Fold these 2 entries.
Entry 1:
Amino acid sequence: MNKVEIFENERATEYNQFVETWIPNYHYFMDSLPKLLGETENKTLLVVGCGTGNEIERFLSATEKWRITGIDPSPEMIKQASQKFSNFDNVNLIEGVVSDLDTSDKFGAATLLLVLHFMEDDGAKLNLLEGIAERLESGAPFILLDITGSKTQIKENLEVLRLLLPKNLDSDDVKNRLHRIENELLTVSEERLSQLLIQAGFEAPLRFFQTSIYMGWMTRKK
Ligand SMILES: C[S@@+](CC[C@H](N)C(=O)[O-])C[C@H]1O[C@@H](n2cnc3c(N)ncnc32)[C@H](O)[C@@H]1O
């Protein structure tokens, strides 16, 4: 099983406030998802690491009707998402990891947002990407949002992020979190991410979005 970074209790509750503060242009990115995947013929979507369901919400307000499977190993995240989407019969939420899903039903598209940088590049990242590829039909689009970059790139973009943060944050908290991002997250360079995706069975990815350390990537299952 992949290493799991589980978001529990207060972390899950405060999650939405956290992403809005720490990811500049978060809403812009999330709002663009249904547009980016809008021309996909098979409108079955696999949302890996769906958390509280922020990306699922966007697909539910799209004009096209999607059938959505959201999967996340955190019981607390899945609980919050379930409360939000209890009235939608086109949303299926699963507490678990991708390898728990059957490989016989192939999805038409997938997303993996803000998950990969918590996993080691010791086979865990590759394993997750391969697991997603295995459950997608050929040609299916796949969108990723990840903290990506070489050590220098991350350091320089963290300085950009610091400048973009709201001014009312506690300065020690800011310092600690920037330090944690630089030293504890399991980020890889753009080249390595591309290599991992190709090895997992995807086309060479396109970086279509960037806000400081966060990069948005688009590719397709081969
Ligand atoms: C930072 S949150 C992102 C949530 C959501 N994608 C978003 O953008 O709002 C990361 C999520 O990944 C989940 N996660 C951790 N390890 C995972 C794994 N191996 N497979 C799928 N999800 C995982 C965590 O439980 C957490 O909900």
Entry 2:
Amino acid sequence: MSILELTEEFDIHLNHNCGGVCACSTCHIYLLKGEAFVEGITDKEEDFIDRAINPKLESRLACQCIILKDQVEIEVEIPDQRRIIGHEH
Ligand code: FES
């Protein structure tokens, strides 16, 4: 399961305009803790992160963060999404 899928399961709003296929940057998050427990970043993901609003070292795309283990602690911050066009997706 990805962090994006987790937000949906718990009814936490997070944009995902491309539907979770690493073709936009609207599911941009900051992964503050637990990097070792999610799939590593790919070149394609890095390219789209560069297009996100205010990218940082801890930036990831939530749809690409597949959680690799159960019972681990992962901490995520969702940046302000109001500047994203179509932010109600
Ligand atoms: S939803 Fe588009 S890259 Fe994650």
